[in-house]
Design brief:
Alpha-D-Glucose-1,6-Bisphosphate, Chain A, domain 3; 14 helices; 22 strands; Phosphomannomutase; metal ion binding; A-D-PHexomutase_C; isomerase
């Protein structure tokens, strides 16, 4: 092996996953070492190791390299081929096996990376072995070789798209809803494969859905727009197509199809908080019908307060967490929560191994829409009683000092403050709240706020930002 010592894995190993620039911070060589370390650290010699990847040009080579490293250390590799991230979670849950999916989610084409899961779809993060895998892989790279074990692992291949589609359909029955026209923007990502299987008739019987496809061609160079629906400009094609086709709803997925954004029939976005509230209502009702007294719903602290209010109204118990999927998944397991939602359009389900799946959330929205006659804009209005600011970033040199300053100025009588994740200040009257959260990777403080009306939201937002931006 040549030049392996020049690869520094700390550049690509993040808190929750691995992401790097192909050929620079992530290479086939480094991936091979990670495959070996994955088996070593998680004790997977003689056990099944799932390996799949998305449509990025480098994914096939990386899948092959990871499989080689894993087999060299005795892991029995099952190659899954092209998969979405939630297909890995499905496989890890159903087959009780650890695995990896090669993806860089919504990052540009020059990136790739790895999301890892233990058996049962338990996430592998910095708290649960990711950095140990990094360090073991770095040792192999520095040594220039991966020592083979006595028994090299086996290699098999399998496909699971039809089984994954059938599993999701078993959780939400769409067969009896009214006919709906649905525009889906796959962004040239993996939803181009999963949508026809789950919502169409590519693998199973047709549902009462007419799918209008937008950018379903799998193309990891993303020729039409970045596969990041969190950015408003990346939703414009979908919004226009919903109006043009007279559709009932629009769905946008990110590159690895684990997040889903919803557009109403007018072409307007439905906030992820509203989707969280809508799905929470359905999951509470279902859990209660199954005999659960007080179903638990998880939400992060910058989700609309409409979520915990609705959960309480419907007889559930809302539990707030920090932002970040490893926190949500951990609390989902601790609380045996039936559902969890984030402002970033990640949705977690107990019936999906506490993992996130954008497709299952989309199916719940389709069911809620199709089980009644009102348009989505009317339905969503129930779940959006407050006015949100959206996320606003400000460049700040000393983030901790600035949060202290804001707390001194705004955490006055008549308010309640929290330091669970950054700084949250809420009016005791319930009229407004805001959160300032430091970015872990950039010199930003991120502002999110919400109020009873637009004037109050704008006033609080402008007063806080005036302090933050000096």
């Amino acid at each position: 092996m040549t030049e392996t010592h020049e690869i520094d894995l700390t550049a690509s190993f993040k808190a929750y996953d691995v992401r790097g620039i192909v050929g620079e911070t992530i290479t086939a060589e480094s991936v091979r070492a990670v495959g070996a370390a994955f088996v070593d650290v998680l004790g997977l010699a003689g056990q099944k190791v799932l390996v799949g990847g998305d449509m990025r040009p480098s994914s096939p080579e990386f899948m092959e390299a990871f499989a080689e490293g894993a087999r060299a250390r005795g892991g029995d590799v099952l190659k899954l081929g092209l998969i979405s991230t939630d297909m890995l979670y499905y496989a890890a849950g159903v087959q009780q096996a650890a695995g990896v999916v090669f993806t860089a989610s919504h990052n540009p084409a020059e990136y790739n990376g790895m999301k890892m899961a233990k058996a049962g779809a338990v996430p592998v993060s910095s708290d649960t072995g990711l950095y140990e895998i990094r360090d073991a892989a770095q040792a192999y790279l520095d040594a220039g070789q991966i020592p083979a074990v006595e028994r090299t692992g086996t290699l098999e291949e399998s496909t699971l798209l039809a089984d994954y589609a059938a599993y999701l359909r078993s959780l939400v029955d769409l067969s009896g809803i009214r006919p709906l026209k649905v525009v889906v923007d796959a962004g040239n990502g993996m939803a181009g494969a999963t949508t026809p299987a789950v919502l169409g008739d590519a693998e199973l019987e047709a549902l009462p859905l007419t799918i209008e496809p937008l950018y379903f061609e799998l193309d990891g160079t993303f020729p039409n727009h970045p596969a990041n629906p969190l950015e408003p400009e990346n939703l414009r094609d979908l919004q226009a197509a919903v109006v043009k086709h007279g559709a009932d709803i629009g769905l946008a997925f990110d590159g690895d199809a684990d997040r889903c954004f919803v557009i109403d029939e007018k072409g307007e976005p439905v906030s992820p908080s509203a989707v969280t509230a809508l799905v929470a209502r359905r999951e509470i009702a279902r859990a209660k019908a199954d005999g659960e007294d007080t179903p638990v719903i998880i939400h992060n602290l910058i989700t609309s307060k409409a979520v915990p209010e609705l959960v309480a109204h419907d007889g559930g118990r809302a539990v707030v967490t920090r932002v970040g999927h490893s926190f949500i998944k951990a609390v989902m397991a601790e609380e045996s929560a039936v559902f969890g939602g984030e402002h970033s359009a990640h949705y977690y389900f107990r019936d999906f191994f506490n993992a996130d799946t954008g497709m299952l959330a989309a199916m719940h929205v389709l069911a809620a829409l199709g089980e009644q006659d009102r348009p989505l804009s009317d339905l969503a209005e129930e779940y959006e009683p407050y006015v949100a600011s959206g996320e606003i970033n400000s460049e700040v040199e000393d983030k901790a000092a600035m949060m202290d300053r804001v707390e001194q100025q705004f955490g006055v009588e008549g308010t309640t403050t929290s330091r669970m994740d950054g700084l949250t200040v809420a009016a005791d009257s319930g009229d407004w709240w805001f959160n300032l959260r430091p970015s872990n990777t950039e010199p930003f403080l991120r502002y999110n706020g919400e109020a009873k009306d637009a004037a109050t939201m704008q006033r609080v937002r402008d007063e806080v930002l005036a302090v933050v931006r000096g």
